[in-house]
Predict the structure.
Amino acid sequence: MSWPSPTPIVQRSDAARIAVAFTRVLRGVRVTVPTSCTHTFAEALCALGIDDRDGVYWAGRSTLVHEPEDIEVYDRAFAVFFDDRRGLEHDDAPDEATEVTIAIDDDDDDAADDQPPDGADPGDDRTIELRFSATEVLRHKDFARYEPDELVRAQELMSDLRLVGSPRSSLRLGPSRRATSNPDIRRTMQATIRSGGEPIERRFRSPTTRLRRLVLLLDVSGSMEPYARALLRFVHAAVAGRQKVEAFALGTRLTRITRELASRDPDVALASASELVTDWSGGTRLGDGLRRFNDEWGVRGLARNSIVVILSDGWDRGDPDVLAEQMQRLHRVTHRLVWVNPLKVTPGYAPLARGMAAALPHVDSFVEGHSVAAMEELIEVIGR
């Protein structure tokens, strides 16, 4: 659905957050809402704002409701969420869940009575209780709108994430039950000795697998400043929680920060990395940075058969042809090349930036990177 206003009345990040929260309310009362409809509703909020109640009501009803029997449920959910604002007023309670009760009755007049009519069963009224966890709200909140205390909580959430990735074959041989594998003479002789000299069991070996290396390149330029502080915490969680992870900061220069982020103490790790990166919130030369990475680390072996993840919005002051060339070089040697763009979640987003347009043809996966939930989806992409 297309909305005519060319200038958004409400910030896109705010509209997306409100649309996601209200969609969660509707799904909690068993109204089926596809994700695409949530995006459409967010676009409508950008055009209409949230001050016009009737406009917001009809925007939500026309985009989120598809069955006639869901209209009554939608009306009551809308009244609770937008009129009472209960769904938005409890975001500040970090450790407690917020409970919202939506009573669905057949008659509004009866709902106003303190006592049920004579002979009526009190259980006839259908009451649905929704519990909103502050942690769940934080998972979907845009990194750009995080408060300092929310960054700390996000660090805890991202520390629980497990980055695995697809394994790769190793030259090492390990025990195997397949008779078509290489015979294991030593273990076969040991089994023969235990059985009194009779070669009853034959043992075999086959190639094993090992963890594939993960390389993270984080854009720390000025355009990424609202997101870099949170994404750096994700990079730290990956380095501290998984073996064979390499981390680099990418701005006007390339800085390797793997050793600084290896500490399990987030405060120590982030302080060390921030002190080492001298071009924080500066300009961006993605092409030159990737060229140095390819020449000194990537093509020589660090990126070979590895999973390489670039976290950047794609804004580049350098020559886009250089970026395209270096992305092509990197793509040739990697197992998978993933680009994480925090701006991708914006309704109507198109990769129009010169850097993003030059890099996209050489990317295997192009994913969002604006929230903890987006980082969870990234982990799924890495693990495929």
In short: Residues 158-163+212-382 form a domain with the Rossmann fold fold (CATH 3.40.50.410). The two ends are 33 Å apart (CA to CA).
